[in-house]
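Hi F.,

I've been meaning to write this up properly since the lab meeting, where we talked about keeping a consistent format for the predictions we share between groups. The idea is simple: the sequence comes first, exactly as it goes in, then the structure tokens exactly as they come out, then a line or two of notes. No screenshots and no reformatting. I'm using this chain as the first example so we have something concrete to point to.
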Amino acid sequence: MMNLSEHSSEDVPREAMHREEAPSREVVSSEGSGRCGAGEGCGVARCAAARSEARGVALWVIASALAACSAAFVVTMGIRTDGFVHADGAVISLAALALELLWESIEAGVIEEAMFRGLLLYVLAEGLSRVKRWAAQPGFAMVLAVLISTVAFAGAHVVSSLSISSAELDAAACLALALKFAQAFLFGVCMCALVLARRSLWWPILVHIAFDFLYFAPSFAFAGGLPASYAVLDAPSLAALAASILLLLPPCVKSMRVLRKAC
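Output, unedited:
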């Protein structure tokens, strides 16, 4: 006859052990699917995927600036024969130009990212999320905040070029401003994706600095400074602008996927 005391001492702990192991197996399976054990989306896998894709966006944006810089240099060298910018009959040191360009890039990267992604984006997201209509849809409020802050960012670049009189805004100037708006808009979407996916303002700041340094290198090398206005662009600047718009389209599309995962 089987001893009941032996049965209880051996089988009961096994049942308890199985009951303890069951939740752990559920957690493992839930991590693989990106959902918690209670059936609600925890977003861990989505956030990790967004951070991974954000790195690709950052590298693609910097590569776009490098390609646009190369296009501007090629066009400039084809129409100029006097080399780099001159002052008082002497060639200005390229090292001095590089330091000045670096300072301008740092200033623009820090100020613009702090203003449009560090302040405006989150103020809009916080305000829109409190609207009763969108309170239950925080993702939609964030996407709307991204759209508004990016339009404001692109519009600021166009407004800064409207210091010239309206009589000078011919068709060519309007086209140049439209292209600049498109470029700034695409760039702004990528920066919003970076800050939301990485949860840090340093990523868009560093990418912004790198982009500006590469993009404006031909202007500093051949003209000694930034363009006076985006409404009046020469052939090299237009080449760089057109190239950057085409090259920023893929990372912008990728940023849309990052935003869907990060919001």
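Notes:
The first strand starts at residue 86 and ends at 87.
The beta strands are 86-87, 90-91.

If this format works for you, I'll send the rest the same way.

G.
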